[in-house]
Amino acid sequence: xxQDDNQIIKDIVGSIRxxxxxxxxxxxxxxRHFSLTAPQSGVLRSLNARGPISSAELSRELCVTPSNIxxxxxxxxxxxxxxxxxxxxxxxxxxxxxxxxxxxLSQGLPDPIETRLISALSDLSPGKVQELxxxxxxxxxxxxxxxxxxxxxx
Length: 154
Known about the structure:
Arc Repressor Mutant, subunit A; 3 domains; mainly alpha; about 150 residues
């Protein structure tokens, strides 16, 4: 039985490594194929879905600090993918708009791994989803990581 337990433990650790690798590969593909970081693609997706919004709204939606979102928008603006336009009724506020090339690119972006996972989890039975959640909570406790936030890395 000890031999079986050791193999199961190795399988669990191996599965976690594959999960981490899959997330990393997803990020590298986005960077190589589209010359975008994950936060940049998040901004493009958000603007494509919602239309023009302020950097403050983008910051809140993407769980990114205001100073970070400013840098992300600056880099996207240099690439010609977004532009800042002052609101007519309040010149203090700039709305971030997709340019034509930004719109074209954002519509062609593949779904990030997180979106695919959410979709696949929603196809499982509620009991299976609860079982997976409980197992992941246990794993986080085992490695003393339950205190970490669940916001995406930026």
